[in-house]
Amino acid sequence: MFHRIGRTVVRHPVWTIVAWVIAAVAIIATAPSLPSNSDESSFLPSSYESIKAMNLQEKAFPSAFTPSAIVLYQRADQGKLTATDKADITRITQELGQKKIEEVQKVVDGSLSKDGKFETALVQMDKKSQGQPKQADAAKALRDDSTALAKGTALKVQVGGQAAQNLDQQDAGKTSDAVALIGSLLIIIITLSIIFRSPLIAVMPLILLLGVVFTVSNALIADATKVFGLQANSSISALLIVVVLGVGTDYFLFLMFRYRERLRAGDEPKEAMINSVTRVGEAIASAAGAVIIAFCALALSTLGFLTQLGPALAILVAVTLVAGLTLFPAICSVIPPRALFWPGKKWHQEPSGTRFAAIGKLVGRRSGMVAIVSGLVMVLLALGTLGYKASYDLASGSIPKTKESMVVQDTLAKAYSAGAAEPTNVYLTSTGGKPLTADFTAYADKLRGADGVADVSFDKKTDLNKAGTTANFTVTLKYESASDQAIKAVGGVRTVAHENAPPGSEAFVGGASSVFKDINAAVNHDYRTVFPVAAVLIMLILGLLLRSVVAPWYLIASVGLGFGATLGTTVLIFGRGDGLIFLLPIIMYLFVVAIGTDYNILMIARLREEAQEGRSPREAANMALRHAGPTIGAAGLILAATFGTLMLSGNAFLTQMGFAVAFGIVMAAFVMAMFFTPSLTALIGHAAWWPGHADRAAEPAVAGAGVPGGAGGPGGTDGVRDPELDKSR
């Protein structure tokens, strides 16, 4: 199949390029705009208690005041507020309400802090637009107007809350995108320039990936988001840029290394490109298939963010794969090799005595020692996972601490009760539609007695709906809403609320801490479903590719060790304080498992190819490292470095993700694929391919195999000649 693809593309490169242009224009022109949602509660399905509580609140208290933004007042000299200051605060609050800012429904007085240094105003926005970009615009208007109204006073005014966090998250996302893009571009250009000594090869993948693949993928992602009703999130964009540049450059490298190798073996350029697509196509397609399936497994997640991220990344990798098999070889086919590799002069010469040749000899001769040492390194690093702790505050994790909304959040936690900024709500509702007859005071006392509760408030006049069927108890916890203590405390509140609900009624606990607790439960569900499903599907791909039952087991086990080593190291570096962002292990697992499988596939496919030339398992491992090692090393370096640029974003979530995925790729390329996998395969020998015989030569090895220009060429790979091209010559 891949020979036919390569032959068609190389024989008709112009038509292939034209087809890509037409398809790209049509897809981009018809795609809708990509929406965005930063509301963490939208991550969860309606079956979770926090969402049931939210739906009940909207039904029973449609006009209930739920602040979307908080205006924080303090003196510029940080002293106590004076009578004049308080009068200015009242005036500013009233005038903000009179501004008629879009989305803002009401601005009311808040409360004075115990130390008398802070006062707040609460801003209610349209609940239907919660988490949408227009509420971030409203937060920006609030900041501008409140600052203008405070001129000439002794006050300093700042705006925080959910809407302001959305605004700051958008700004941080733009910075992340720019840093990821610029950093990735520089890394790819510099690395490719060093490897191939060709400015054309250095810039070609960037133009194709950003100009064609990324824009087409974004359009298809927007289509999928609209058709399937998925959620979009501002953190996805920077990740997509890194993935398309990293993975796309990997596929380009796989193709160019093999193309150069076939040219060195004496193939005519078009024949060399067909042979390259034929030999590399299966490995690239299998590797991409493993990545796509791993990402599609996220569709089983219960978290909205992951159900959006998975299909988006799967679409991106699929488009990159198609480009790698068609667009890349088509463009390279219309450029003569001398122009493609210019000004380099040694592209047609086979190097000798390379470092990878030395590594190959080591792995071939000392397979047992190499397998033990590399495996032990991963096991020792994996011990760090014992200290894993999750952080559920995605907003804080994705916004620098210096941003205004984060400063307001920290100030509120210190000046008021830590849980005052985002209280918990207990809704007691009648199950039969009749008015409640419960002793509300006694019920509030029960809630007040739960561990971690600072206060409970209930006013029968305002906290009981008109029909008398639902009561709202506001519970203030002692802890910040996203902390482990608050999540544990809200579990106790749920127990007390459920057990003490009077006959004929039931209780639902809502609020931020309740949402985080449900996210915790959803993540645990994903660990039990997404992880094993992705692993099984990847093993099936490996089994079909290698026609073996044995090899997939130790290959997936090696990738599992790499994941453990990556998570353990990330915990040791980032997980000592508040812990790792709760999404990180899932994303890390999918990237490390999928991309680690990529490199394992490339290495073992080359190892099989060498074995089919009649070499022994140890000799095959030696030659596979000699010829596939540079490809994997370069690909791993570029991909790790591009993900590493996320560490410069100033975003805690992307910083942790950037390090974790970059380190995981380093482990996959330079420990698993370079040492552990080939040494283990050499030790197992022919049994690794049971029950098939994929490593056996179909015919006796060709004399002179491995000699540049010989039948086998470098690494003993037979050229696949195209009869049509032979006729043309």
From TrEMBL:
<feature type="compositionally biased region" description="Gly residues">
    <location>
        <begin position="706"/>
        <end position="718"/>
    </location>
</feature>
<feature type="transmembrane region" description="Helical">
    <location>
        <begin position="283"/>
        <end position="306"/>
    </location>
</feature>
<dbReference type="InterPro" id="IPR050545">
    <property type="entry name" value="Mycobact_MmpL"/>
</dbReference>
<dbReference type="GO" id="GO:0005886">
    <property type="term" value="C:plasma membrane"/>
</dbReference>
<feature type="transmembrane region" description="Helical">
    <location>
        <begin position="234"/>
        <end position="254"/>
    </location>
</feature>
<feature type="transmembrane region" description="Helical">
    <location>
        <begin position="653"/>
        <end position="676"/>
    </location>
</feature>
<dbReference type="Pfam" id="PF03176">
    <property type="entry name" value="MMPL"/>
</dbReference>
<feature type="transmembrane region" description="Helical">
    <location>
        <begin position="369"/>
        <end position="388"/>
    </location>
</feature>
<feature type="transmembrane region" description="Helical">
    <location>
        <begin position="12"/>
        <end position="34"/>
    </location>
</feature>
<feature type="transmembrane region" description="Helical">
    <location>
        <begin position="312"/>
        <end position="336"/>
    </location>
</feature>
<feature type="transmembrane region" description="Helical">
    <location>
        <begin position="203"/>
        <end position="222"/>
    </location>
</feature>
<feature type="compositionally biased region" description="Basic and acidic residues">
    <location>
        <begin position="719"/>
        <end position="729"/>
    </location>
</feature>
<feature type="transmembrane region" description="Helical">
    <location>
        <begin position="178"/>
        <end position="196"/>
    </location>
</feature>
<keyword id="KW-1003">Cell membrane</keyword>
<feature type="transmembrane region" description="Helical">
    <location>
        <begin position="553"/>
        <end position="574"/>
    </location>
</feature>
<feature type="region of interest" description="Disordered">
    <location>
        <begin position="700"/>
        <end position="729"/>
    </location>
</feature>
<dbReference type="InterPro" id="IPR000731">
    <property type="entry name" value="SSD"/>
</dbReference>
<keyword id="KW-0472">Membrane</keyword>
<dbReference type="InterPro" id="IPR004869">
    <property type="entry name" value="MMPL_dom"/>
</dbReference>
<comment type="similarity">
    <text>Belongs to the resistance-nodulation-cell division (RND) (TC 2.A.6) family. MmpL subfamily.</text>
</comment>
<feature type="transmembrane region" description="Helical">
    <location>
        <begin position="580"/>
        <end position="602"/>
    </location>
</feature>
<feature type="transmembrane region" description="Helical">
    <location>
        <begin position="529"/>
        <end position="546"/>
    </location>
</feature>
<keyword id="KW-1133">Transmembrane helix</keyword>
<protein>
    <submittedName>
        <fullName>Drug exporter of the RND superfamily</fullName>
    </submittedName>
</protein>
<keyword id="KW-0812">Transmembrane</keyword>
<feature type="transmembrane region" description="Helical">
    <location>
        <begin position="623"/>
        <end position="647"/>
    </location>
</feature>
<feature type="domain" description="SSD">
    <location>
        <begin position="228"/>
        <end position="334"/>
    </location>
</feature>
